[in-house]
Amino acid sequence: MTQEKSYLIIGAGLSGICVGIHLIENGHQVTLIDSGKNLSSIIAAGQINPLVFRRMTKSWRVDEFLPYAEKFYTKLESDTNLSIYCPIQIRRMFSSAHEKTMWLEKQNRPDFSIYMETITDEDDTYDLAQNDFGSGRIKRSSYVKAAQFLTGGKEWIKKHGTVITQKMNYQELDPATGIYQGKEYDGIIFCEGSENLSNPWFGNLPVEHTKGQVLTLTSTEISQEESLNRKCFLLPIGDCTFRLGATYEWQTNDTIVTNEAKDDLLEKFQLLSQKPFEITEHLAGIRPTIPDRRPILGKHPDYEKLLIFNGLGTKGYLIAPLLAKEFVDFVDGKVELDREVRIERFYK
After folding, report:
1. CATH code for 208-289?
2. Cα separation, 94 vs 104, whole angstroms
3. Can you tell me the distance from the alpha carbon of 347 to that of 44, in angstroms, rounded to the nearest whole number?
4. Which of 191, 198, 193, 232 has the alpha carbon at shortest distance from 209?
5. Per-residue pLDDT tens for 24-58?
């Protein structure tokens, strides 16, 4: 049986909430610090897509991540009585004849057919979007309503633990003893996203800033039955409203929206649809990304009580639930972390 311990989690975004829930479910005391400043989730579409379209490959560890994520989000949805998890089919509008050929080569393979619908004549002649090379439909795709997840997740943790609304004051933490503001914790877990740069103990890690911008559109003429994808995504979120995104702007941490990004998104939108629409919102946020496209999990090399869970990237809502479980089991001494996510890869 796991011995009860107390943990302080810094950051109430996707990472912090998933880690907090799993710690509590493992029998631990959790205090979650929420600064109220979340630069990533503001632009997160929360899409869960089992494929990587560029090379028509499966997402990293998707066969493990996807079933666990489905159970995790539906359970949280049931516990909080909030609408959080939304299955929706993704239709990939092929960008070239070669892309269609890659799909055809894999659609009947057992390891891919669980995620790919077999292309039909209707897919080739689909007329609710610009269809130059045909289209393919994804199985078991979905999206998580980010705002509801963050609200519901914090409320769940508050019900079973403690949530404090304040900004972390690094100067009040003793890294050797795990004492913060006069209370000793068995572990301090930093889930700070792009704010990691200012962290005195983990700020040297390559958590890069990637700015992203999205538009919210309304249209009564665009289909709300599927999420369309080609150079961008067009995600129906209900009531004739859509999210259009997203841009990638490297090495910047400002959240100022720009006309250049808006024009870029609208140009890509033309590859999907010529239907009329109105722009109702334009947002920008910062994603924490890692050069090797794998999260950073583990303990500080010098301070046993300091841990990090960061860098989930664009597949965050797919990979976060199971990685959080593995991370908590690692903290409890039950398992080793996946080699690809260990913090040790950045230390000589």
Report:
1. 3.30.9.10
2. 12
3. 30
4. 193
5. 999 999 999 998 776 676 678 899 999 999 899 99
Q: Could you give the CA distance from residue 22 to residue 8 in angstroms, rounded to a whole number? A: 13
Environment class of 255 (CB within 10 Å of its CB; exposed 0-12, middle 13-18, buried 19+): middle
Which residues, at least 6 apart from 188, have a Cβ–Cβ distance to it below 8 Å?
A: 7, 8, 10, 173, 175, 178, 180, 305, 306, 307
Report domain extents, the chain.
6-44+146-206+292-346, 89-139, 208-289
C-alpha torsion sign, points 75, 80, 81, 87: negative
239 residue type, one letter: D
CB 65 within 8 A of CB 322: yes
Q: What is the pLDDT of residue 253?
A: 79
- Based on C-alpha coordinates, what's the Rg of the chain? 21
Identical topology for domains 6-44+146-206+292-346 and 208-289: no
